[in-house]
Design a protein that fits this description.
single chain, alpha/beta, twelve-stranded mixed β-sheet, 29% helix
């Protein structure tokens, strides 16, 4: 198992496939983009599958999520999904994406065995999307979500970040849109993971504020207080509202900063260049790429991976005055 000294066991592996992205969201990276990782430093498809296999067959990983950057930019993505879902025991396999290109790729991903997708969507307004993402691609994102649902990659989950004075007036609109289309919406507090290091607590819309905005239009009832487990989202029923199939409508709020869930965290991250991160906000990494390319055995890799997770801190420390933002931005870490 991948256990740390606080009794937590990592079973959820987040695999970043690339640090590149086809959007330039203001809260993630500058307009000109970033200095991308050189191709020789990136894990090959075979190397990624080798490490996933070690995680699943030797270390108890039960869920694999492909992230980026933007994972749809990785040409070998369907093969990576197929290779992962062919493992025994078969892990649940998911994808976090901005949705651009998903309409085209969804059938192939579903055929490869992908179970579901999370799509980022912060606004329903075309002009606002262009200002936020610096690209005119909102319709592509909406089409991608619809394509995923049509391909059976359900439930389609939607991740939204509200920003003060930018899109925080759209909470109810986003929820109405998602319920209408059968998507499960999750609002996420903005975290200090931008490349510009411009995050400020006073501009972050908190979980309490998100709920207050929603409750101006909807009646919410806590849905999973006793069954949440390691899930990052606090889930709420939307009273009197149902999804198209008739199920009770829900909405989630992920209070990463003000309502941290570190005590139940079961995640570990593999970057596109083969580094293990035991926390999203870790300031140290463990190099599995060097071991793999140096001819290490599966058990040697597993031992190094166990050692990396064993040193995980009790929490992310954002609320500590001495907190330092990780050197890598979110696009290079993977969500």
């Amino acid at each position: 198992m991948l256990a740390d000294s606080y009794g937590r066991v990592a079973t959820d592996l987040r695999v970043s496939l690339t640090d590149r992205c086809n959007l330039r969201c203001t809260y993630c990276m500058p307009p000109e983009g970033l200095e991308w990782l050189p191709k020789p430093e990136l894990l090959t498809d075979d190397e990624i599958l080798s490490l996933i296999r070690v995680g699943v067959t030797r270390l108890g990983i039960t869920e694999v999520r492909f992230t980026g950057g933007e994972p749809l930019l990785r040409r070998g993505l369907p093969g990576l999904v197929a290779g992962t879902t062919a493992l025994t025991p078969r892990p649940q396999t998911a994808l976090t994406t901005n949705g651009i290109g998903l309409a085209r790729m969804a059938p192939a991903l579903a055929e490869a065995g992908l179970d579901r997708v999370n799509v980022s969507l912060d606004t329903l307004r075309h002009d606002r999307f262009e200002r936020l993402a610096r690209r005119r691609r909102l319709q592509d994102v909406l089409d991608g979500m619809a394509g995923a649902a049509e391909a059976g990659l359900t439930p389609v989950k939607v991740n939204a970040v509200l920003m003060r004075g930018v899109n925080d007036d759209e909470a109810a609109d986003l929820l109405s849109y998602c319920v209408e289309h059968g998507y499960e919406l999750r609002f996420i507090e903005q975290m200090p993971l931008d490349a510009q290091h411009g995050w400020r607590r006073d501009t972050m819309v908190t979980a309490d504020e998100i709920l207050a905005r929603l409750e101006a239009d909807f009646t919410l009832e806590a849905a999973d207080a006793d069954t949440r487990g390691s899930a990052p989202a606090e889930l709420f029923h939307v009273r009197g509202v149902r999804f198209p199939g008739g199920d009770q409508a829900t909405v989630g709020v992920i209070g990463s900063v003000t309502r941290p869930f570190c005590g139940a965290c079961d995640r570990v991250r593999l970057t596109a260049d083969g580094q293990i991160r035991n926390c999203l906000f870790a300031r140290q990494e463990s190099d599995l790429r060097a071991l793999l390319r140096g001819g290490a055995t599966d058990e040697e890799i597993a031992d190094s991976w166990r050692a990396a997770v064993a040193t995980k801190l009790p929490g992310h420390g954002i609320n500590d005055p001495a907190f330092l933002q990780p050197a890598r931005p979110m696009s290079a870490i993977g969500g």
